[in-house]
Amino acid sequence: MKKTLILTTALVGFASAAHADLTVMSWGGAYGAAQTEAHVKPWSAATGNPAVMVDADNPAQPIKAMVEAGNVTVDVASLEYADAVRLCDEGILEPIDASMLSPAPDGTPATEDFFEGAITECGVSTDTWANVYAYDTTKFTGDNVPKTAADFFDLEKFPGKRGLRKGAKAVLEFALMADGVAPADVYATLSTPEGVDRAFAKLDTIKSEVVWWEAGAQAPQLLADGEVAMTTAYNGRIFGAAIDEGKPFQIVWDGQLYENELYVVPKGAPNKDQAMDFIKFATSTEGLRAQAQHISYGPPRTSANKETLLYKDGKTEMGPHLPTNPENMKNSLLTSSDFWVDHDSELNERFQAWLSQ
Amino acid sequence: MAEAATPLLTTADGRPLKAALAAAQSRAKRRAFMLVLPLLFFVLVTFLVPIGYMLKRSVEHDGFAVAAPALDVWFTENSGFDPANPPEEAYAALAQDLARMQTEKTTGLAGTRINYTVPGTVSLFKKGAREAKDLVPPYKEALIALDPDWAKPALWRGMAAASHVYTTEFYKVASDMKLTDDGWARGGEKDRIYLYLFAKTFFISGLITVLCLLLAFPIAHLLATLPMAKSSLLMILVLLPFWTSLLVRTTAWIALLQEQGIVNDALVGLGLISDENRLTMMYNMTGTIVAMTHVLLPFMVLPLYSVMRVIPPSYARAARSLGATSWTTFRRVYLPQTLPGIAAGSLLVFILAVGYYITPALVGGADGQLISNLISFHMSKSNWSLAAAIAGMLLVSILLLYWLYDRLIGIDRLKLG
Questions:
Q1: Residue B258 domain-assigned?
Q2: In the A/B pair of chains, how many CB contacts fall below 8 A?
Q3: CATH architecture for residues A2-122+265-321
Q4: Which residues of A touch B196 (CB under 8 A)?
């Protein structure tokens, strides 16, 4: 509430003070800081236009409220994939012409250079994050370390508790991939009642050993406390704990689900042309590389993943830590927002019923 | 008559005394009302209006009716149609509406509304709307060729119901009903969750209330009977956790009770249990009950204390001197006098427990979920109507309990401190 108040005050003050400034709205925290350093400041320096970053708990909510109230004060917003698609369907966002985006340094057009699904009708991806699983390297050593999604479900070879996010999304897909379903077939399988039963049957094999977590910060905490031997988590959280805090965590890049985060322009943005120019600048190969130096979320275009990237500490190579690294993407799946828009309620009811059995 | 002969009492300026008194009193009443006016306004704005709005949301959704006007008209004119085999005109209206949704960008709105009762329809509507302008008559064949799901009787039942702005469908979903091809029916065993969670929430809340009462009664008695200096010191111990943030107390319990936590470490250290057989006290029902009982304990201690403090000790002494045993004294003399405190504390704890969200979310694990966790899930997935329907059912059941409580114990006996 306090945050909303501050935000509203800031926006009201801002709306009357400077209409010429470009306003970017993002999630705050380490993520917002990365975008400020990598996109907002350099764009401002390159074009001479002032630009400001404002924070929101989830930018999708204020954006929708602003457009519906006809008082838009934000030019560019950073949204989750599902929100970007939903708001685009509802006519809240400006369509973005993909042909105006910067080509790769070697001249490949942006539409071919970006990963599949990274450019949508109303948004352009800035980064890719993944739902991975990680284990405690002090518990499993030598050759006997988990390497595949199936190992997560192998209680005999790798005894110990498991952490899983309490919810149907990402858990069911992960279970199916661990059961041997190829990533390309996961959603087709999950669309059938037998496929859903198969996913739950796989989860049944570890149900007694699972510690369910809900907030993103809980997963690395469970692992650090020794409560679980391995847990699924957002890859940035594990990276932060391992690199910044030196925890003995190792990510297993197999059977993970990844998702894109996008820049969008709300309908009626006061500086629409500058907003488009900002998106072009930020989603160029260099712009995306700059962001990935601050946070371990991968740049979603091929050309940005070619050369070695260093973390802001100046010594950690980002490549092995990014969800977009070709080595890490061998057996992975892009979360289908279409599938989950259709089935979230239904599968979650089933999931909750299964949990309480 | 004698009364008529009595001279009328008047004030110094000649007005009848009764009228002058009434005028003076009504002025005082108006002033008193002005004093409570801000509170009344506050309660209205922050309490009654949001609850009314929530209840309205639970029966009202115009997403589909607005996005599909042609179908709306058709459904009104043909309310007795056969969902198993809708005629060509129905499909023509649907095709017209789909094309309209595409231009007006209302596909998401309409599809989401139908998806609430018929899963899988958001993408069906999106696909239909994209292709709508290229469809040619007969629309029935064209749409079914596009996706056979357009012929599903459940879908037509769902659309017909959704064309009404006011609906009871959300309450049906919240009662574990599913819209099938043959109409509403009880959901499959694997999907039933809401009524079970309601029952579980009430059972757990009742259990927590009893635990709080058992723990709080001796503490409150001790506080009420100790000399003032000692009892205020003890009171701090009750109040300190009460003043501490809920999140801090919940996570403190995690640190204590988890498998690698302090309690388990101590038990292993003392050799009472082996390292492999550490007790699982967190991320399950036990964890939820322990943490919630602790968090809610002060709400039981304080009303009990305030009632016990004013019970004169001479009553108990009198009972003893008249030959009652200590148990009889407690049962027949002391306990009845604490009833208003027990009633108030139990009601407070129970109602707070029924709506608890954050503690079960953090420590509940697999089987420690309560109904509020599902309300929160549907809020975050912007199915506000279903969330409102579940919340509405919760509100009604609490009001029922309150009514029952009033009949059995009497609300005037409540003493909050």
A1: yes
A2: 85
A3: 3-Layer(aba) Sandwich (3.40)
A4: 353, 356
> Before B138, cis peptide (omega within 30)?
yes
Question: Can you tell me the distance from the alpha carbon of B346 to that of B364, in angstroms, rounded to the nearest whole number?
Answer: 23
> Any CB–CB contact under 8 A between B121 and chain A?
yes
Give me the residues paired with residue A301 across strands: A114
Q: What is the pLDDT of residue B4?
A: 52
Please tell me the total count of domains within chain B. 2
Q: How confident is the model at residue B417 (pLDDT cuts 50, 70, 90)?
A: low
With an 8 Å Cβ cutoff, are B105 and A90 in contact? yes
Q: Is residue B102 part of a domain?
A: yes
- Is there a contact between A342 and B190 if contact means CB atoms under 8 Å apart? no
Chain A CB contacts of B378 under 8 Å are 345
CATH number at residue B242: 1.10.3720.10
Where in chain A is CATH 3.40.190.10?
A: 2-122+265-321, 131-258+333-355
Amino acid B21: pLDDT: 86
Residue B180 lies in a domain: no
Backbone angles phi, psi at B176, to 5 degrees: 65, 25
| Cα atoms in the Cβ-side hemisphere of radius 13 Å centred on B391 | 25
B408 CB near a chain A CB, below 8 Å? no
Taking CA atoms, B12 is separated from A287, B17, B26, B186, B313, in Å, by: 90, 9, 20, 78, 54
Give the CA dihedral A90, A91, A94, A96, nearest 10 degrees. Answer: 60
The pLDDT value recorded for residue A162 is: 95
Largest CA distance in chain A: 64
Tens digits of per-residue pLDDT, B222-268? 999 999 899 899 999 888 888 888 889 998 999 999 888 899 999 99
Examine the domain organization and report whether B235 and B340 are in the same domain.
yes
The pLDDT of residue A85 is 85
Inter-chain CB proximity B122 and A341 less than 8 Å = yes
Residue B79: pLDDT above 60? yes
- Mean pLDDT for back-to-back runs of 10 residues, chain A (357 residues): 46 47 89 92 94 88 86 94 84 91 92 90 93 94 92 94 92 96 95 95 94 86 92 91 90 94 95 95 94 90 86 84 89 90 87 86
The distance of B207 to chain A (nearest Cα, Å) reads: 18
Comparing alpha-carbon positions, the chain A residue that sits nearest to B113 is A342
> Closest chain A residue to B360 measured between Cα atoms?
A214
B136 and B278 in one domain? Answer: no
Query: Is B192 in the A-facing interface, judged by CB distances under 8 Å?
Result: yes
How far lies B329's CA from each of B318, B320, B323, B342, in Å?
9, 7, 9, 18
ipTM of the complex: 0.78
- Specify the pLDDT at position A5: 44
pTM: 0.80
Asked, for residue B316, whether it belongs to a domain, the answer is yes
Q: Are residues B353 and B268 located together in one domain of the fold?
A: yes
Structural domain boundaries enclosing B407: 195-413
- Write out the two tokens for B72: 């709306």
Q: Does B204 touch chain A (CB under 8 A)?
A: no
Which ranges of A179-262 would DSSP assign to H, the alpha helix?
186-190, 193-204, 218-225, 235-239
Same domain, B216 and B336: yes
B155 lies in the same domain as B235: no
Q: B366 to chain A: which residues are within 8 Å by CB?
A: 207, 210, 212, 355-356
CATH of domain A131-258+333-355: 3.40.190.10
- For residues B164 and B205, state if they share a domain: no
